[in-house]
Design goal:
The chain has 183 residues and is mostly helical. It is built from 10 helices and no strands. It starts with a helix and ends with a helix.
Length: 183
C-alpha cells in the first residue's frame, strides 16, 4: 500500500483527478483485501463524497465505489447504511450491465438482515452467473462468498441450502435485487 500512497501523492501533485480517483479506489480495495474494514469504509465514504461533488468523476466509477462500500459496510455490520448504499448502487450497476458485482454483497446483506433463505437464493444466482459467464471472483469477493457459504451451512441443512441455491439460479437479476432491497 505504500507504493499506492506514493502514486496517489504524485497524482495529487499533478492535479490528475482521474489518476487520483483510481489510486483512491486501489487503496480502498487494498484495505478491504487486508481485512481493514474500518479503513475501507472510511475510504469508500470519502470516494462516494468526491464523486457526488464532482460530476466529471462519475463515468463508470461510481458503481464500483458504491459496490465496494456496500460490501465493507455489510461486513462491518453497518446494515442500515449498507442497505441505503445498495439501493443507490443498484440502478448504476444495472445500467452498466454489471448486476453480478452486487449479487454477493446482496447475499451477505440479506444474511445480515436475517433473511437466510434469500441469502442462499442470491448466492445461488451469483454462483450461476459467475459460472455461465466464465468469470472469476476477485479475492475479496471470493473471501466474502466463502464466509457467507460457511455461515449458510451453519444456519441450515445441506439439503435446504442446495434447494434454495437451486431456486436462486432461476432468479432474474431484478428478482435477486428485489429480494435484497425489500423491507
Amino acid at each position: 500500500m505504500r507504493v499506492g500512497e506514493e502514486v496517489l501523492q504524485l497524482a495529487i501533485a499533478l492535479s490528475d483527478k482521474r489518476m487520483t480517483l483510481t489510486m483512491l479506489i486501489y487503496l480502498e480495495q487494498s484495505a478491504a483485501a487486508l481485512g481493514r474494514l474500518e479503513e475501507s469504509v472510511a475510504r469508500g465514504r470519502d470516494l462516494a463524497k468526491r464523486i457526488r461533488q464532482d460530476r466529471s468523476l462519475r463515468s463508470g466509477i461510481e458503481n464500483i465505489v458504491l459496490v465496494n462500500l456496500c460490501m465493507s459496510l455489510t461486513e462491518l455490520g453497518e446494515v442500515d447504511e449498507a442497505l441505503e448504499v445498495a439501493r443507490s448502487a443498484y440502478p448504476l450497476v444495472e445500467q452498466a450491465g454489471r448486476v453480478l458485482d452486487l449479487l454477493d454483497p446482496f447475499a451477505l446483506l440479506a444474511f445480515k438482515r436475517g433473511r437466510i433463505g434469500d441469502a442462499a437464493r442470491m448466492l445461488g444466482r451469483a454462483d450461476m452467473c459467475y459460472a455461465m459467464g466464465n468469470y472469476r471472483r476477485e479475492p475479496v469477493e471470493q473471501k466474502l462468498r466463502d464466509k457467507l457459504m460457511f455461515s449458510l451451512r451453519d444456519a441450515m441443512s445441506p439439503d435446504e441450502l442446495s434447494r434454495l441455491m437451486k431456486e436462486g439460479e432461476a432468479l432474474s437479476d431484478e428478482d435477486a435485487a428485489h429480494l435484497a432491497l425489500r423491507e
